[in-house]
Amino acid sequence: MILAGIEDEDKWLAEAIAGIQHNAFYMHRALDANNLRDALKCSALMLSELRTSKLSPHKYYDLYMRAFDELRKLEMFFKDESRHGVSIVDLYELVQHAGNILPRLYLLCTVGSVYIKSKEVPAKDVLKDLVEMCRGVQNPIRGLFLRSYLAQVSRDKLPDLGSEYEGGEDTVMDAVEFVLQNFTEMNKLWVRMQHQGPVRVREKLEKERSELRDLVGKNLHVLSQIEGVDLEIYRETVLPRVLEQVVNCDDELAQYYLMDCMIQVFPDEYHLQTLETLLGACPQLQQTVDLKTVLSRLMERLSNYAASSPDVLPEFLQVEAFAKLSSAIGKVIEAQVDMPIVAAVTLYVSLLTFTLHVHPERLDYVDQVLGACVKKLSGKPKLEDSRATKQIVALLSAPLEKYNDIVTALTLSNYPRVMDCLNDVTNKVMAMVVIQSIMKNNTCISTADKVEVLFELLKGLIKDLDGTAVDELDEEDFNEEQNSVARLIHMLYNDDSEEMLKIICTVKKHIMAGGPKRLPFTVPPLVFAALRLVRKLQVQDGNVGGEEDPATPKKIFQLLNETIEALSSVPSPELALRLYLLCAEAANDCDLEPVAFEFFTQAFILYEEEVADSKAQVTAIHLIIGALQRMNVFGVENRDTLTHKATGYSAKLLKKPDQCRAVYACSHLFWVDDQDGVKDGERVLLCLKRALRIANAAQQMANATRGTSGPVTLFVEILNKYLYFFEKGNPQITSTAIQGLVELITSEMQSDSTTPDPASDAFFASTIRYIQFQKQKGGLMGEKFGHIKV
């Protein structure tokens, strides 16, 4: 049925175009013969084709443009009186004798254009006559195109200031009155179109009507181009008359389009100075009008106007633009009870953008906008609409982008309240935006109060919200989020030690509520922040805080012990062990032996009770040995206890090669190459001999199970330890012992049961070259190495 209708329209259009072409042909013949009578007759017949009611606006436009092109040629003929021999005054009378009103009025407008150009009468008289005459056509489509033609032929002939058609002192008002009258009539015709067909095709009619909107809007464009329309005329005449039409037409499409058109065509300065009048019309419009877009575009234009020059900013203050816009948005939201949340939030985003452009220094305005948004969202369930949440993220991101400083946003009391309106997923997205802003701008958060507010903002990342289990989250996203929180902790700093301790305590309070999966990410940066404070206090020599709440290394270590203990119970024993050892080293530097011993004790307990994996045990024991070797705070008794534990655990590792390497590493615990370091040569030798026995046992075990004794790598490693302590002057390590070990390795390598291994061979060859190099070096060291024969 629809297809049949389209085919019919195409047929009717083709017939009408054929009619125009046929009559145009004879009109051209008459024009060439300078035959006015026939020219008028043929042109009237040609224009009669425009009387059709069968075509849609789109098809009618095609027909109209064909006729328009022919009328241009007719106008050229009318201008040349020598060709037709009739005065323009008589011609103006003559065309009014055409039989049908539509062709008559098209011809009248064409002659009227020439009449104005002749300047035989004032332009305003002819224009007034034409605009009144056009009332004779009340069919919406035919009337709209007729008046559009009138606007087209008259736009360069208005009695404007500086125009060749300028009249008396009220000349500008004459031009304005003509355009306004034409606009008013066209708008009435356009609105009436919606009632021209049956209800079942209402949607099609609205679409057709929308296609004709530019015909009406052109009048507003012409008004904006009139030179004489200054702010006074705009305020007193143009704006009230246009708004009267907009409000009274009670049509959603017309109201939306005309409001938007006004905002686009008239200067920003005029909008600013008449803001109250323009905004006052908004609540009077139909509830279904998309005022969100209209007001957003108005605020966007005003924002750009403010950004164009600093000189215009006082105007915004003078007219109280923010207060008026804020009030108008409130009234619109109140009036449109069915306005979707996304539309209301979009309005607040536009208002906030305007505020940040025009009044960036007025944080109270920014907070007021956020507060209004909270009021709109309060009492409603958390937002799930993706478009609305996207707008909320835009709303919250705007201050961050403008000020490049989260500290400024933290002073806004309504900022966290808006975030609370988001669902959990979007809350996390916004929290990530906040962290990224801090990182990008390298912002330092320097007080515990600000940290408290910040972590309240970020609670979606720091702890589970509303019972959402961590297991439900995507692991990759979760890791990225927690790594961001960890990076953030490094951005919290204050030079004042007492305040820094408060910051650390605040962070600890929040991250401890994060649950077992988050602690391995968030505890390490907190520990490092606390250790940084310890180092600083150590440089400043201890207690520098106030008397009531002093920040001392001892107090910080207590806090660290509690923090790491929570991590060890997660369980994440390997990480907790590393952190205990770091704290022990810091306590060593602060000369706090009991504290350091306690941290080592905790590390050993973790090793005993929690570290079960053999590879993890190897790593852990080497970490313990390395940390213990660097300790210089321990007395003899404590040091012996800890070294005994370390050597004992080393010998109990699962694999023989791991045992061997851990035991020879323990030799360093008895020989510290510092001025006051431990130098117990006998116990070093005992460790190395024990390592040799374990290496030998490993060879025998390999021989028994595989039939080959495996490579000699362990022996070469032990040889290197012997050489190290020999160089350092350990009297228990003799050249004879080294000589014997070299010979042992050589014989093992030549044995048939030993598995060839290029890496071991190269290692041993390098070690021999090193001995030869030391022998050749001469001096005291050369003399020492001279006794070793290789």
TrEMBL record:
Pfam families: Vps35. One of its GO terms (biological process) is intracellular protein transport. Its main location: cytoplasm. One of its GO terms (cellular component) is late endosome. Keywords: Cytoplasm, Endosome, Golgi apparatus, Membrane, Protein transport, Transport. It is found in: Cytoplasm; Endosome membrane; Golgi apparatus, trans-Golgi network membrane; Prevacuolar compartment membrane. It is a peripheral membrane protein. InterPro entries: ARM-type_fold, Vps35, Vps35_C. SUPFAM superfamilies: ARM repeat. Plays a role in vesicular protein sorting. Belongs to the VPS35 family. This is Vacuolar protein sorting-associated protein 35. It comes from Dovyalis caffra.
